[in-house]
């Protein structure tokens, strides 16, 4: 039998509208893995309720997120996309893992400290503290070999590794200790209005953020009004964060090197360059937007993807969970009539 391909798993919260930073920094890179790995992509709605939210929006965002993933190249014929709350086992495993996780380690997580800063402990849900344990469960439930994560999630992955090792030592070898997966390319996309900050949905200034579903005229307007630097050369340089960011963006959507683009624009003004960046971004995003809009009209296809994703994920999850429950000393579950 052919050797099984390694398992890659990654997840993201259903934030609704994805932006160019999500796409170039993450999703586009994930799409490149489909042929070489068994890929699982989770839309983690259980994580999304750790901070205040609106239920109807969560439901809607979960579906939009799925449509955008598929439109961005996560071909459901080659990977499994699932919604976290559809698979029984994430919270069950999180409970068992949580009982092995030192409280102090959770309190020391940078993301928890950032989110809890300045708040009374009475106003912070315990879910925020427990968040990394649920994330560990997401990963270990599938016995993932590799996990692509952004820098802000590295600490959570380290914790996952600690918890996996702790379980293996306390009971017996059960989990693979997952490794971070590093993408070769696809760097950070910065805000168009403040190129020293990452492009982010929570950016107060929406004109700095290119959403994948922005229509072409909006994309063009945002790019043309991007903050540029003093001087007039089109070069990637530390003292030119605005132009460097636009060069990186254009390079990513055209698959040409920044150096190559610099040569093309020698002696040209910022306006000409920005027009070219806008043309390139629009050309790249237009098919994605069209595909996504078509999918949003086709609920049947979306539901089928979720159904298949969940049933495959559930099969894998069941194997892990029953092993874990047995090792933890729980009695075998009686067969129930349904
Ligand atoms: N915490 C991650 C984030 O906010 C999302 C996440 C949840 C995740 N579970 C995961 C990422 C498992 C990778 C693997 O980005």
Can you list the ligands bound to this structure?
A: tryptophan
Q: Rg to the nearest angstrom?
A: 22 Å
Q: What is the 3D form?
A: globular
Number of DSSP helices? 13
In order across it, which strands form the biggest sheet? 1-2-3
Q: How is the biggest beta sheet arranged?
A: 3 strands, parallel
- Strand percent estimate: 5-15%
Poorly predicted sequence stretches spanning 5 or more consecutive residues: none
Average pLDDT, rounded to a whole number, is 95
CATH architecture of the largest domain: 3-Layer(aba) Sandwich
Number of strands: 5
Helix content: 40-55%
| Straight-line distance between termini | 36 Å
Highest-level CATH class of the largest domain: Alpha Beta
Provide structural commentary.
It is a single chain. By secondary structure, the protein is mainly alpha-helical. It has 2 domains: 7-186 and 299-328, Rossmann fold (3-Layer(aba) Sandwich); 206-294, Orthogonal Bundle (Tyrosyl-Transfer RNA Synthetase). The chain is 51% helix and 7% strand. It is built from 13 helices and 5 strands. The longest helix is centred in the C-terminal third of the chain and has 30 residues, at 299-328. The mean pLDDT is 95. Bound molecules: tryptophan. The site of tryptophan has 14 residues, from strand 1 and helix 7. Tryptophan (TRP) binds at residues 9-13, 44, 47, 135, 138-139, 147, 149, 153, 156.
């Amino acid at each position: 039998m052919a050797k099984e391909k390694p398992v890659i798993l990654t997840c993201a919260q259903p934030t609704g509208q994805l932006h160019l930073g999500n796409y170039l920094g993450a999703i586009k890179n994930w799409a490149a893995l489909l042929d070489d790995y068994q890929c699982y992509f989770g839309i983690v709605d259980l994580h999304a309720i750790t901070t205040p939210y609106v239920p109807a929006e969560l439901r809607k965002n979960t579906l939009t997120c799925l449509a955008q993933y598929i439109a961005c190249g996560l071909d459901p014929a080659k990977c499994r996309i699932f919604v976290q709350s559809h698979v029984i086992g994430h919270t069950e495993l999180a409970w068992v893992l949580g009982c092995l996780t030192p409280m102090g380690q959770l309190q020391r997580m940078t993301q928890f400290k950032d989110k809890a800063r300045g708040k009374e402990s009475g106003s912070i849900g315990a879910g925020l503290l427990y968040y990394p344990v649920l994330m560990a469960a997401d990963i270990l439930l599938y016995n993932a070999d590799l996990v692509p994560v952004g820098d802000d999630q590295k600490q959570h992955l380290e914790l996952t590794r600690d918890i996996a090792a702790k379980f293996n030592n306390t009971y017996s070898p059960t989990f693979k200790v997952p490794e971070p997966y590093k993408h070769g390319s696809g760097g950070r996309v910065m805000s168009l209005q403040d190129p020293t900050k990452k492009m982010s949905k929570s950016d107060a200034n929406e004109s700095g953020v290119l959403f994948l579903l922005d229509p072409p005229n909006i994309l063009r307007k945002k790019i043309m009004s991007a903050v540029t630097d003093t001087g007039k050369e089109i070069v990637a340089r530390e003292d030119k964060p605005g132009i460097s960011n636009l060069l990186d963006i254009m390079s990513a959507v055209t698959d040409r090197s920044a150096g190559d683009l610099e040569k093309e624009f020698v002696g040209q003004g910022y306006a000409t360059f920005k027009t070219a960046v806008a043309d390139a971004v629009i050309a790249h995003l237009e098919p994605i937007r069209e595909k996504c809009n078509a999918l949003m009209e086709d609920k049947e296809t979306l539901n089928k993807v979720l159904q298949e994703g969940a049933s495959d994920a559930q099969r894998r999850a069941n194997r892990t969970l029953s092993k874990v429950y047995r090792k933890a000393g729980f009695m075998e579950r009686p067969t129930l009539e349904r």
